[in-house]
């Protein structure tokens, strides 16, 4: 009999933990949230994207220079 009581307690704990473990924003998955109504300026967004691409490209070039200088210094 003692084994059945502990099994019941563990079952209840699992069920309680299962309800707590669910995400708080599950409604978004099922589509009951309303869509975002904010609009963005397309031209401004494209400018920011281009600026980000240029920054990323410049950082990549800096890293390539550092790697090449390390390789050149290790060869000599």
Concise account of the structure shown:
This protein has 76 residues and is mainly α. It has a domain at 41-76.
Low-confidence stretches: none
**Main β sheet profile:** none
Figure out the total of helices. Answer: 3
User: What structural category do the secondary elements indicate?
Assistant: mainly alpha
Q: Looking at the structure, what is the overall shape?
A: flat
Radius of gyration: 28 Å
Helix-residue proportion: over 70%
Structure overview:
- The protein is mainly alpha-helical and 76 residues long.
- It has a domain at 41-76.
- Helix content is 76%, strand content 0%.
- The chain contains 3 helices and no strands.
- It has helices at residues 2-20, 26-30, 42-75.
- It is flat, with a radius of gyration of 28 Å.
- 0% of the residues are buried.
- The mean pLDDT is 76.
């Amino acid at each position: 009999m003692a084994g059945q009581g502990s099994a019941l307690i563990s079952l209840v704990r699992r069920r309680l933990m299962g309800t707590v473990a669910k995400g708080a924003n599950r409604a978004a998955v099922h589509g009951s949230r309303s869509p975002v109504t904010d609009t963005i300026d397309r031209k401004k967004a494209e400018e920011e994207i281009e600026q980000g691409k240029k920054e990323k490209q410049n950082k990549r070039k800096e890293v390539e220079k550092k790697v090449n200088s390390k390789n050149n210094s290790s060869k000599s």
